[in-house]
Amino acid sequence: MGSNRLVLILIFIGIGYFLVYKDSEGPLSKFTGSLGKVFSTENAPNNENPYKAKENPASNSSGIVADAQDVITKKAEKKASDFLGEFKDKLFGKSPSIENDLPVAYFPVSKKKLEIVAHKAYTLGYDEDHEQAAWTFHELTKASTIGNASRNGLDFMPDKLVKSGSALSSDFSRSGYDRGHLVPAGDFKCCQDLLTDTFWVSNLIPQDPDCNRNVWNNLEQQTRNWARKKNRVYVFTGPVLKQGLKKIGQYNRISVPESVYKIILFIDDANLENSQVKAFMMPNKPNLGNNFNLFKVSVNDVERATGLDFMASLPDELENRLEETISSARW
Question: What is the pTM of this model?
Answer without folding.
Answer: 0.71
